Amino acid sequence: MDKFVIEGGVALRGEVEASVAKNSVLPLLAATLLTREPCRILDVPRLSDVGTMLTILRALGVECLHEEDGSVTTRVVDETKCEAPYKLVRTMRASICVLGPLLGRRRRARVSFPGGCVFGPRPIDLHLRGFRALGAELELEGGYIVGDARSLRGGEMYLGGPFGSTVTGTANVLMAAVLAEGTTLIDMAACEPEVQDVANFLVAMGADIRGIGTPTLEVHGVAELHGATYRPVPDRIEAGTFLAAAAITGGTVTVRKCRPDHLRAVTERLQAVGCRVKTGEDWVSCSRHARLQAADVTTLPYPGFPTDLQAQFMSVVCLADGVSVITEKVYPERFMHISELERMRSRIRKEGNCAIVHGTDWLSGAPVIASDLRASAALVLAGLVAEGKTTVRRIYHLDRGYERMERKLQHLGARIERVRDEDEGKGEDS
User: Fold this and answer.
1) DSSP letter for each residue of 413-429
2) How many domains does the chain have?
3) 3-state secondary structure 230-252
4) Under a CB-based contact definition with an 8 Å cutoff, are residues 273 and 295 in contact?
5) Is 428 contained in some domain?
6) Which of these ranges, 109-123, 151-165, 216-230, 367-381, has the smallest mean pLDDT?
7) What b-and-e string marks burial along 50-73, b requiring 16 or more CB atoms within 10 Å of the CB?
8) Using CA atoms, how far apart are residues 91 and 102, in angstroms rounded to an integer?
9) What tens digit of pLDDT does each residue of 12-21 get?
10) What is the CATH classification number for the domain harbouring 390?
């Protein structure tokens, strides 16, 4: 395994380009199961999650080629395979996205319950509710979801849950509905850019979907879909992470090839903590020249502040003047990074789904362990500004969502190195 070794104290300056969105790419790859014709997804980053999804697709009879220019070309060669086994699915929650296309196209599926980041329960009951509304018969057998969709038809459903709409569930059910007979109405559909991306890709393949970007989707089933070439939207979470890096280090960073309209909730909060934000057609710049100011944040479904940037923002306000309250309304247990940030001299108190952050003057470098993808990014940001050396272990979590993050940070002036972790697994903590 690898680890990051970071020497803090450098104000980051310069420009980086955002990759395309990992949270779009994974369901888009799953959607290629819906046609026998070749599909081409452009600019796909080389992430471990992408590799996992391509392995799952190959197990489902898909030829996949990740080319040097970043594009992924897929072609279904065997539609008899309908099982996504536990050994492949266990590492990534997004692998559940193959369930919808399998039910929609092959009309049967056997998919293991998914794994992924461990920061509290993330049930898939809304996915199953949507599939059943389309007429699919589902059974839970030995940790697998076994589905029979021979009579798949349009239906009406409500996909709202106790913490809002389901992003992955909306995309998953949508991929089944496009080949169902008749009309499907999805109420309380997620409006995230990544869900819109899936819908737009399906339209490019010949689907009939109306209301894209709204809480109500109307799907008119078609008999067949064809291949398509598609470029996913930029990764707003990666872009937000680099903007937060500018904020915490007191530097100036411009993120290019991004969508400023997807980042409005983020840039508003960056301004609230004392940063100067500028935007253009496809770029956002963040700079800070004075002490950070405390600011509250509440995570909400899009267009609210994204839960996937909560941990990074927490690192930022650890150095703010005053008390900040971070309220997590999407995944109430997503606070596993708190204990590691406390090792770096932060002062944070968790109360229910809130974290009360008392700003401090400085952070101390320390050995820390990443618990999940976004927690990894938060610890890296803290390390960039901490006094002394910070070692971030288990960065395989980070490699799931950021393509060679250390190289982009080095380009901005950060003193960060990826090294082999020879002590991992020996029980040592330094």
Assistant:
1) T-EEEEEE-TTTTTT--
2) 2
3) ECCCECHHHHHHHHHHHHHHCCE
4) yes
5) no
6) 109-123
7) bebbbebbebbbbebebeeeeebb
8) 20
9) 999 999 999 9
10) 3.65.10.10
* Whether residue 82 lies in the annotated active site: no
- Edge-to-edge order in the sheet of strand 39-41: 62-66, 72-76, 39-41, 229-230
Residues 159 and 42: their CA atoms lie apart, in Å, by: 30
Q: Select from 251, 263, 375, 245 the least CA-distant residue to 310.
A: 375
User: pLDDT, tens digit, for every residue of 255-273?
Assistant: 999 999 999 999 999 999 9
CA distance 27 to 43: 15
Is residue 411, in this structure, part of any structural domain at all? yes
Evaluate whether 2 touches 395 at the Cβ level (below 8 Å).
Answer: yes
Residue 74's CB is within 10 A of a number of other CB atoms, namely: 25
- pLDDT tens column, 324-366: 999 999 999 999 999 999 999 999 999 999 999 999 999 999 9
How many residues would you count in the chain?
Answer: 430
Q: Global pTM?
A: 0.95
* Strand ordering across the sheet containing 216-220: 156-158, 183-187, 216-220, 208-210
Q: Which of 39, 82, 97, 117 is flagged as catalytic?
A: 117
**Amino acid in the structure at residue 338:** I
**Residue range of the domain that includes 294:** 2-19+234-420
What's the CA gap between 406 and 292, in Å, rounded?
Answer: 25
